[in-house]
Design brief:
Shape: elongated
Number of strands: 0
Strand content: under 5%
Number of helices: 8
CATH topology of the largest domain: Cytochrome Bc1 Complex, Chain D, domain 2
Low-confidence stretches: 177-186
Oligomer: single chain
Helix content: 55-70%
CATH class of the largest domain: Mainly Alpha
Radius of gyration: 21 Å
Order of helices and strands: HHHHHHHH
Mean pLDDT: 89
Length: 186
């Protein structure tokens, strides 16, 4: 047996042993999936890396529609964001909500942590992220509405709390008048 084959065999056996140990932990329920127990560094890195690479790969080829970012589209997106997103992702000047505090992993605060390209934001909003609490809004909303949210996200980091309130006051008035979040019956 050559020296290289011996090292390759040892490496393959080590990978197999680690895989079997991991499977045993998973099957036995040994891994704690509680949302109030943080992941270890390795699990966190693996989840982040997998998510980031998956989204980037799937968002390739998404074409941003013409007229993207118009004032009307941003205004519509502001209303949708206030209705569907702010409870988890917060807004300028907004304190953490009960739901945002209970999420793990925590939803990014998009007024501060908003560096993904528009195509990736669209893909995430449309398809959601498994095991994160991020819903797949493409199931209930058409692409035009989803792109309006992305257009608004491009402006969100530049908004003051007052500017955000001004842009979303129609959504708040609709919510108060109907007693529920408008758009949810779509």
């Amino acid at each position: 047996m050559s020296k290289n084959w011996k090292y390759l065999s040892i490496a393959l056996l080590a990978v197999l042993a680690l895989s079997l140990a991991y499977a045993a932990i998973e099957i036995s329920g040994g891994y704690d999936v509680a949302a109030d127990t943080p992941h270890g560094a390795l699990a966190f890195w693996l989840a982040d890396t997998t998510r980031d690479n998956s989204v980037a790969s799937r968002a390739r080829g998404i074409i941003i529609p013409s007229g993207f970012g118009s004032d009307a589209q941003v205004k519509e997106g502001a209303s949708e964001y206030a209705e569907m997103c702010a409870q988890c992702h917060l807004a300028p000047g907004m304190e953490r909500t009960e739901i945002s505090q209970g999420l793990y992993p925590r939803a990014p605060e998009l007024a501060h942590d908003n560096d993904l390209p528009p195509a990736q934001q669209f893909w995430i909003i449309k398809h959601g992220i498994k095991m994160s609490g991020m819903p797949a809004w493409g199931v209930t909303h058409n692409d035009a509405i989803l792109w309006s949210i992305v257009a608004f996200l491009q402006k969100l980091p530049t908004l003051s709390p007052q500017h955000y309130r001004d842009m979303t006051k129609d959504a708040a008035e609709d919510h108060d008048a109907m007693g529920h979040m408008p758009g949810m019956e779509r």
